[in-house]
Design brief:
Blueprint lengths: L3 E7 L5 H11 L3 E6 L2 E8 L3 H10 L3 E5 L10 E4 L1 H5 L4 H9 L2 H12 L5 H10 L7 H9 L7 H11 L2 E9 H11 L3 E10 L2 E7 L5 H14 L7 E5 L5 H6 L2 E5 L3 H6 L2 E3 L6 H5 L2
Parallel strand pairs: 5-6, 5-9, 6-7, 9-10, 10-11
Antiparallel strand pairs: 1-3, 1-4, 2-3, 7-8
Helix pairs in contact: 1-2, 4-5, 4-7, 5-6
Protein name: Phosphoserine phosphatase
Pathway: Amino-acid biosynthesis; L-serine biosynthesis; L-serine from 3-phospho-D-glycerate: step 3/3
EC number: 3.1.3.3
C-alpha cells in the first residue's frame, strides 16, 4: 500500500508545463497554488520520489515530500551545522586566509567535507597550520567575513516564535558558535576549542573533538533531555560529517550540500535559502 504525501515544489517563476510534468510523474491528483512560487501537490505517491525530486532540481526548483498536515511547529528541536550551513563561510579557511595559506587549508577542508579524509585528523592538520596567529584574527573573521546564509535569520526567528529549541553543533570553533549563540538567541552551541596562549593560537585544540559521531551524540543527548520523539527533531547540514546527525533526526535536511549528503537526506535544498524550510512546512 503506497503512502500518500504532499509534494511541495518551490518554483520561483514556475513554468506551467514543468509543473504539469512533475505532477504527472508524481501521480499527484490535487494541485494547490497558495503562492505564485509554491505549488502543493496533495496525494502524491512516494514510489517515484527520487525521479520526481531529480526532475524538480533539473528545472531549478527545490522540492520535498512532506507528511500530510505536518507544519514547522510540530518540530520542537532544530539542530544545525555552522560552517556553510547556518553561515556563509568555512571559518577555518578564512582564518587561514589572514595568514596567507587559504588554498592549502581550503583544499583539506573540501576533501574532509566530501568524506575523503578522516575528519579529526584533517581538522588537527589544518589547526596546526594556524599556529602563531593572533587571537584578533578570529574577531576579524567574525566581524568582516561571517554572515548568516540567506533565510537563516527568518528560520531562527520562526523557531523562537514557535518555541522550537535551537542547537548549533559544529566541527568548527567555539569562538564563533558562542558569538552566534549570543547574537541570535540560540539555545545550545557546541564546537571545538582552539588553544590560545598569550593571545596567539598554538596550533592545537583543547578537549574532545566535535566530529560526526559527537554531532550525532549531541543531538541524541539534547533530544533526550527535552524528552522529544525522533520525529520532533529536524537537523540541517552540508558535509559528510553531518550525515550521522541528519540520519538520526526525524527529518534530515541537506543545505547546498555535497552530493552524497543530498542523496542521503530526507530533504535537499539546492537552490533556495534556509527559509525554504519555512515554505515547505507552511
Amino acid at each position: 500500500m503506497s503512502t500518500l504525501k504532499t509534494l511541495v515544489v518551490l518554483a520561483p517563476q514556475p513554468d506551467p508545463q514543468h509543473i504539469t510534468d512533475i505532477a504527472h510523474l508524481a501521480e499527484a491528483p490535487h494541485l494547490d497554488h497558495p503562492g505564485a512560487d509554491i505549488v502543493r501537490m496533495r496525494g502524491a505517491k512516494a514510489e517515484r520520489r527520487q525521479e520526481v525530486i531529480a526532475l524538480c532540481h533539473r528545472h531549478g526548483y527545490d522540492a520535498a515530500y512532506i507528511d500530510n498536515g505536518k507544519h514547522l511547529g510540530d518540530f520542537r528541536l532544530l539542530v544545525s551545522d555552522m560552517d556553510s550551513t547556518l553561515i556563509n563561510i568555512e571559518c577555518i579557511d578564512e582564518i587561514a586566509d589572514i595568514k596567507g595559506i587559504k588554498p592549502q587549508v581550503a583544499e583539506i577542508t573540501e576533501r574532509a567535507m566530501r568524506g575523503e579524509l578522516d575528519f579529526s585528523a584533517a581538522l588537527q592538520e589544518r589547526v596546526a597550520l594556524l599556529a602563531g596567529l593572533p587571537e584578533s584574527a578570529l574577531e576579524q573573521v567574525y566581524r568582516e567575513r561571517l554572515r548568516l546564509n540567506p533565510g537563516a535569520e527568518q528560520l531562527l526567528s520562526a523557531c523562537r516564535r514557535l518555541g522550537i529549541k535551537t542547537l548549533l553543533v559544529s566541527g568548527g570553533f567555539t569562538y564563533f558558535t558562542d558569538r552566534l549563540k549570543a547574537d541570535y538567541g540560540l539555545d545550545y552551541a557546541y564546537a571545538n576549542q582552539l588553544e590560545i596562549v598569550d593571545g596567539r593560537l598554538t596550533g592545537r585544540l583543547s578537549g574532545e573533538i566535535i566530529d560526526a559521531v559527537a554531532k550525532k551524540q549531541l543531538l541524541m543527548a539534547t533530544r533526550s533531555a527535552l524528552k522529544l520523539k525522533p520525529e520532533q527533531v529536524m537537523a540541517v547540514g552540508d558535509g559528510a560529517n553531518d550525515l550521522p546527525m541528519l540520519q538520526e533526526a526525524g527529518t534530515g535536511v541537506a543545505y547546498h550540500a555535497k552530493p552524497r549528503v543530498s542523496a542521503a537526506a530526507d530533504i535537499a535544498i539546492e537552490h533556495g535559502g534556509l527559509d525554504a524550510i519555512l515554505q515547505l512546512y507552511h
